[in-house]
């Protein structure tokens, strides 16, 4: 009985991309937390609606011929609620317009245009290769780095730029670069398992993702390598072991374990709730450990 009530709610949150948008806000909050700065509600709103717009727009563009026959629960759910997804996408895009025009500096506007162009270029086939129309996603190995770059720019650079512009907070280039590099590694690591899950489908569509090029086993090893690289940066550039270091280390260890388990668990909810949820968990753990200490 409880499952019958909760499962439709979970489906709505996950497959409408509301959950991933909340995770994006959490990643923005991680940036503010690590910089010991007060979160900007307008920037967080832009991150939320921007993520919602991009993810839903991407799904609508990639509609298969017969979505009702798709092996993926997510695809079947989205296109059985087609009007709802279109409505959510339009509302989120409309919310972005006044937020971007009224509350973003010129530098931040340029950043958001940059991420929007990358996101559209990823999904929209605007290049011609061998008489075929392709998007950026079709370029070998680039999919992972584009996704990680867009997330790093949105959740790290955007808050940093606005903190410097609105509050004259001086954040060094080295500190900004370190934040971006660590976030890039983290997002890349949790993105690869999704590509491993879609390995067979990506081969059919001739998408040269990291798992397609390296193979499943090596791709999992690459995930762990990215997390280890994050941990190395965390240890090297933190002179003292503080609450934030402990919190980030704990979430890295848990993320590594979840990625390892994804090799066995192929359930879609595992990927979209647990793996994506590590982005939300990272912020919650940081807050909890800071509160305890």
Task: Tell me the quaternary state.
Answer: single chain
User: What percentage of the residues does DSSP assign to strands (E)?
Assistant: under 5%
How many beta strands in the DSSP annotation? Answer: 2
The proportion of residues forming helix, as a percent range, comes to over 70%
Strand line-up of the largest beta sheet: 1-2
Q: Give the overall silhouette.
A: globular
Secondary-structure-derived class:
mainly alpha
Low-confidence stretches: none
Main pleated-sheet profile: 2 strands, antiparallel
Roughly how many Å is the radius of gyration?
19 Å
Distance between the termini: 41 Å
Which secondary structure elements does this structure contain, and how are they paired or packed?
Elements: H1 2-15, H2 18-34, H3 41-61, H4 73-80, H5 82-103, H6 106-123, E1 127-129, E2 132-134, H7 142-167, H8 173-197, H9 199-204, H10 210-214, H11 216-236, H12 243-261, H13 268-292
Antiparallel strand pairs: 1-2
Would you kindly provide a written description of the structure presented here, covering whatever features stand out?
The mean pLDDT is 88. The protein is globular and about 55 Å long. The chain has 13 helices and 2 strands. The N and C termini lie far apart (41 Å). By secondary structure, it is mainly α. Strand 1 (127-129) and strand 2 form a beta hairpin.
List its traits.
293 residues, globular, 13 helices, 77% helix, two-stranded antiparallel ribbon, mainly alpha, 4-hydroxybenzoate polyprenyltransferase
